[in-house]
Amino acid sequence: MSRRYPEWTIEGQDWPNHKASRFVEADRYKWHVQRMGPAKPGAPVCLLLHGTGAATHSWRDLMPLLAIEYDVIAMDLPGHGFTRPTTARQVSLPNMAVSIGLLLEELEASPALIVGHSAGAAIGIQLMLDKCWKIPLVGLNPALMPFPGLAAKLFPQLAKMLFTNPFVSRIFARWARYPGETEKFLRRSTGSRIDAAGAFYYGRLFSHSGHCDGAIRMMANWRLEELQKRLSEIETPVLLVHGQNDSAIPRSAVQKAAEMIPQSKIEEVSNLGHLAHEEDPERLADIILKFAKLRRKR
Questions:
Q1: What CA–CA distance (Å, rounded) separates 246 from 90?
Q2: Strand 29-36 versus strand 21-26 pairing type
Q3: By residue range, what is the domain housing residue 50?
Q4: Nearest-angstrom CA–CA distance, 148 and 141
Q5: Is 178 domain-assigned?
Q6: Could you count the other beta carbons within 10 Å of the beta carbon of residue 171?
Q7: What integer pLDDT is reported at residue 175 of this predicted model?
Q8: Which of 46, 99, 121, 255 is 20 to 30 A from 241, comparing alpha carbons?
Q9: More confident call, 47 vs 159
Q10: Cα(129)–Cα(144) distance, rounded to whole angstroms?
Q11: CATH number for the domain harbouring residue 279
């Protein structure tokens, strides 16, 4: 039987942006954190928040591009990648935002910009509202709307059943080890065609049942109804970027979220899917930096 979790001493040795990695303890987690930026002191901080089932590798090509202008901080979310709780924890959207806030305090970092992908956009908005931060946010293929209708009731229950069944994550992990299966899964579920390196790192994570547990645990406790009620409270500019080929988040869901956020704008990117920032990092970096630059001038 394979090891339950990926180990930094093994899987981490060739991890993307390895030299930027460190481990930090905060709020009963041992976080895997990556940080890079310009040599000049005092650069503004950009916080990157990945989505469910991913890790810092998701930012492997985008992070260095943003680090030209920003002190960029990314971490593996709780239960994902190499981040581990030191005690039993309940993972929910509000709790995750609190934990990340305490991590940032430990790092003595105050973000000037948040970039969140998928569920990471929801975490970023929750954090921004809870902390009363008046900073811009970019949501990449943001998952901000609850599942509609019957799915809203069934999906959390399904996730809970999957999490309480110890065999599910092991079966998924075993399946992920078959050659080509991860690439097929990513294309089918995201509409994206990422490079071989990206598929390799996803496959590495998916092949460990502990990482799969982390993603399922996050889904089992995921509730967006309360956050949805607070979207109108956002007082700063928000850019929602949506990939035309995204098979995970429909354009209508992004549009609905934008209608609730006072200073929001949608930018559609053609020929890219849910993992747009991995498919074309240069294009996404240009969109993010132009938006942030415009905000700083105001």
A1: 30
A2: antiparallel
A3: 11-149+224-297
A4: 17
A5: no
A6: 12
A7: 54
A8: 99
A9: 47
A10: 14
A11: 3.40.50.1820
Q: Which residue has the higher pLDDT, 161 or 235?
A: 235
Which of the pair, 145 or 25, is modelled with greater confidence? 25
Look up the pTM and report it. 0.91
Please, what sign has the CA dihedral across residues 99, 67, 139, 202? Answer: negative
How many CA atoms lie within 13 Å of 128's alpha carbon, on the beta-carbon side? 31
Q: Residue range 244-268: average pLDDT? A: 95
Q: How many domains, the chain?
A: 1
* Token pair for 251: 């354009």
56 in a structural domain: yes
Overall size of the chain counted in residues:
298
HEC profile for the chain? CCCCCCCCCCHHHHCCCHHHEEEEEECCEEEEEEEECCCCCCCCEEEEECCCCCCHHHHCCHHHHHCCCCEEEEECCCCCCCCEECCCCCCCHHHHHHHHHHHHHHHCCCEEEEEEECHHHHHHHHHHHHHCCCCCEEEECCCCCCCCHHHHHHHHHHHHHHHHCHHHHHHHHHHHCCCCHHHHHHHHHHCCCCCHHHHHHHHHHHCCHHHHHHHHHHHHCCCCHHHHHHHHHCCCCEEEEEECCCCCCCHHHHHHHHHHCCCEEEEEECCCCCCHHHHCHHHHHHHHHHHHHHHHHC
Q: Does 161 reside within a domain?
A: no
Where residue 79 falls (left for φ over 0; alpha for ψ -120 to 50; beta otherwise) is left
Q: Is residue 232 part of a domain?
A: yes
